[in-house]
Amino acid sequence: MPTPVPAYPSGYCLGSGKAPIQIEAFIDLECPFSKKAWPTLLALINQDPSDRLAITAQPTVLSHHRQSWDMVKAVTAVAAPDPLKGWKFIGHLFQNQERYDSTTFATQTHQDLLALIKTLIQEFDDALPADHLVKEIGDEESAIARRAKASVRYAMSRGVWSTPTFLINGSEVPQLESSSTIRDWNEFLNSL
Fold this sequence. Notes:
The chain is an alpha+beta fold. It contains seven helices and five strands; from the N terminus they run E-E-H-E-H-H-H-H-H-E-E-H.
């Protein structure tokens, strides 16, 4: 089945689309390695006042992370096309990852997960319509689910099979990983 054409680009981009260095960070919201890489990505974008780079967070789903699919839908529902809100909500989810990881949720139900997502949304921004958003997140035929599927299919089309995976200007950079420091990133980027 072909990937549907989304209404706006996949992911949540901070920085200019015209920046000479375009980084795509494919992350799984249940992946501890993606969580480990997140603060470095934040530091990287925050240190760049020159608009030399842009980073697009691309939430995706690994098959062994049962809760990740609903978390990708939650980001899609909360952030819509707002990149800054996407980054902030992803950060909020990573800060609370232990509340929905595989160990914690080993004996929990999907309804338990949706209740937790509602709580996480309310903790993030109590002005958001959490009840409505959770209803949409739980509906596999909703516009939110279709949008999230397009995001995951995009990751698959780019050959992403583990997270985090980093692409710079469209090319995978396996030497940059979850344990890479801001110094590692700067050394690599300055060599371009």
